[in-house]
Specification:
This protein has helices at 40-51, 68-78, 93-106, 117-121, 123-129, 141-152, 181-190, 198-208, 217-227, 250-254, 267-280, 302-314, 335-344, 358-363, 370-383, 400-416, 469-490, 498-515, 523-533, 539-551, and strands spanning 19-23, 55-59, 83-88, 111-116, 134-136, 163-167, 170-174, 229-232, 286-289, 323-328, 346-354, 386-392, 419-423, 444-451, 456-464. It is an alpha/beta fold. It folds into three domains: 10-174, Rossmann fold (3-Layer(aba) Sandwich), CATH 3.40.50.2300; 228-432, TIM Barrel (Alpha-Beta Barrel); 468-559, no CATH class. α12 packs parallel to α13 (335-344) and α16 (400-416) runs antiparallel to α18 (498-515). Bound molecules: cobalamin and iron/sulfur cluster. Iron/sulfur cluster binds at residues 238, 240-242, 245, 247-248, 292-293, 352.
């Protein structure tokens, strides 16, 4: 078994350790769509850097008592860092860049380095908008170790494999191969779970979602199982190539276009990590396998892993009540695997279904899953696990009938017991095939983003709208209604789980699509189902909402 004793990162050990601050992606709307968690990427980097002898700390902007900007200013005033690293994603970029500017102002001599999704796909944008010295492409472990080694010896840091930097001709990328399976395993084992402040996140989430005020014990327990979760990543990337997805291209981009080799932890290594996580966080109730795809079609790991979990629970090495969540290929499911996963404690299985309309699935490069959707969702429900379906309601080239089919099916499967997370349209994340499609440029809506404290702004692609004007108008009208209702509901409900949000999408879509002649479920029924599922709502607000739903036609309320 891998561990801290024999490790592929041993060769990087140094006695000339430098001080490093790593800043996680900053999402001030944290927890709006998902339960936030400690930033796994920078924690894994910190573990590897510490192992090599560097003094690496993590600054997490998402779990602070006061303003993260003041806390970062304080941290940078307290001590000097040789390197400050900023993690970036597309949706958090304007906030990440504001922190990068702040760091450069506070410590102009520290090497300012960007990494993560957005930095890898769009280093030009990062150099244009913030005073970065260097961008790290792809997995940060080996490039960062080499940058620190060069820095310690006073050598130039530009030109190392796995980095990008500005030169006379623009921005130069120096590709680097992705981590080997062994390096991925060792980096994962070096992740300092013991230091990651999961308990602080849980306390905050329990308070902000007022878990103790929930009237029914079963609901309180269910919410606690959701909140008290720890995330574990056991895979380097998903090779499925969906046309809207950026993470499928992440490692190829860092390698300069070459296809990366898939690497993942084996069953024994997964089990060892589970035990370590439980020892570090004994109150954990759910472990979320964060892999883009946890179970593949030709999977030889899931069977032995489930057996090992069952045995470890029986022998008391893992708590009997420990539950699991994972995201899986729908076409990898069968009755045997589902039964094994249920027995091991998997209670929610995510599936990136994205759409029920065959034409949209083809456009998303997912046509092969279509025939597996219905039978395998039924099998999962029969096995007693909750399927969680991710959906994108429209694609750029879809027809109105495709949108209507998605709304009908989403309603059907929510009623059957599935959870559904919905997005109205494709978000053009840098690095996704669709974001690079020149034909879609005229249909891409941009948003002006401002970087706080700098006077800088830029125009960021925000949505790809359907080409067909009827579909585009319909989805925008549905979205406006959804946002109006959301504002109204937020006044009385602290957190709206995805089952409620998805019913709200359906509720808002019904009048728009019925008017266009599409068959839709009865609006009153969907409104009633919505009210029934609203968690922790007080009697008065319930009555007011009931009235609003009964009165309105589902269009945007005046909130
Ligand atoms: C788990 C996850 C979450 C979790 C937990 C996030 C967390 N705090 O760790 C939750 C559900 C909370 C979440 C939230 C969001 N997520 Co998220 N998430 C993921 C997911 C599935 C895995 C990320 C992960 O843990 N990977 C494993 C770690 C080890 O790898 P890593 O983070 O990439 O880090 C490595 C490298 O990127 C690099 N690196 C990263 N940072 C830095 C910094 C420096 C200085 C250096 C040198 C290197 C470096 O080195 C690391 C180690 O090798 C990815 C998809 C994916 N496969 O990446 C989406 C993904 C990253 N998320 C995404 C988004 C949009 C978000 C949200 C903005 C969504 C929202 N608000 O609705 C928020 C942002 C929250 C936040 N502050 O991070 C998008 C980003 C799209 C893009 N192109 O930018 C992704 C790619 C999913 C997608 N395709 O839509 N997310
Ligand atoms: S299955 Fe998921 S992670 Fe894999 S390419 Fe498709 S959207 Fe991306």
């Amino acid at each position: 078994m891998a561990g801290a004793d024999a490790n592929v990162f041993d060769s990087a050990r140094t006695s000339a350790g430098l001080s490093v601050l790593l800043i996680g992606p900053y999402d001030p709307l944290g927890g709006e769509y998902t339960f936030l968690a400690p930033p796994l990427g920078v924690w894994r980097l910190a573990g590897v850097l510490r192992h090599a002898g560097h003094d690496a700390s993590v600054f997490d902007p998402n779990c602070r008592d006061g303003a993260p900007e003041s806390a970062l200013r304080r941290a940078l005033a307290e001590r000097r860092f040789d390197l400050v690293g900023v993690s970036t994603t597309g949706m958090t970029l304007r906030y990440d860049l504001a922190l990068a500017h702040l760091a450069k102002r506070a410590q102009p001599d520290a090497l300012l380095v960007a990494g993560g999704m957005e930095a890898t796909f769009a280093p030009e944008t990062l150099f244009e908008l913030a005073p970065f010295d260097l961008v790290v492409l792809g997995e940060g472990e080996l490039p960062l170790l080499e940058v620190l080694a060069a820095r310690a010896e006073g050598l130039p840091v530009r030109g190392l494999p796995g980095t990008a930097f500005p030169d006379a001709a623009g921005v130069r990328r120096v590709p680097r191969a992705a981590l080997t399976r062994e390096a991925l395993r060792d980096a994962t084992f070096l992740t300092p779970y013991e230091d990651m402040p999961y308990a602080r996140y849980w306390r905050r989430l329990e308070q902000s979602y007022r878990v103790n005020d929930l009237p029914v014990k079963a609901r309180r327990e269910a919410r606690l199982a959701e909140i008290r979760s720890v995330r574990l990543n056991t895979l380097n990337y998903c090779p499925m190539n969906c046309s809207f997805c950026s993470s499928t291209n992440f490692l190829h981009e860092a390698q300069g276009g070459d296809t990366a080799k898939v690497g993942r932890l084996d069953a024994d290594e997964c089990l060892a990590m589970l035990k370590r996580i439980v020892a570090a966080h004994p109150d954990v109730r759910t472990i979320i396998f964060q892999d883009d795809i946890f179970v593949f079609t030709a999977d030889t790991r899931i069977g032995p892993l489930c057996e090992a979990i069952v045995a470890a629970k029986r022998s008391g090495e893992l708590p009997g009540g420990l539950q699991f969540i994972s995201t899986n290929r729908i076409d990898s499911m069968n009755a045997e695997r589902l039964a094994a996963m249920r027995a091991a404690g998997f209670r929610v299985l995510g599936f990136g279904i994205e759409s029920f309309a065959p034409a949209i699935l083809r456009e998303f490069n997912k046509a092969r899953i279509q025939r597996h959707i219905e039978p395998n969702l039924l099998l999962a429900l029969e096995a007693g696990v909750t399927p969680f379906l991710d959906m994108i309601l429209t694609s750029p080239r879809c027809a109105l009938g495709d949108l209507a089919e998605n709304v009908r099916q989403a309603h059907r499967w929510v009623e059957a017991g599935c959870e559904v997370g919905m997005y109205p349209y494709v978000i053009p994340f840098s690095g996704a095939a669709m974001a690079r499609d020149p034909e879609l440029v005229p249909h891409t809506v941009h948003k002006t983003q401002e970087i706080a404290g700098t006077g800088l702004s830029w125009s960021q692609p925000a949505k790809i709208l359907p080409v067909d004007p009827r579909v585009r108008d319909a989805i925008l009208e549905i979205e406006a209604a959804f946002e109006g209702w959301l504002k109204l509901l937020h006044a009385s409900v602290p957190h709206l789980p995805s089952r409620v949000r998805s019913l709200l999408w359906v509720f808002c879509a019904i009048p728009v699509l019925s008017r266009a002649g599409e068959a839709m479920p009865a609006r009153r029924d969907v409104g009633d189902a919505l009210l029934l599922r609203l968690p922790g709502i007080d009697r008065e607000s319930f009555a007011a909402l009931e009235l609003a739903i009964g009165d309105g036609e589902g269009e945007a309320p005046c909130a």
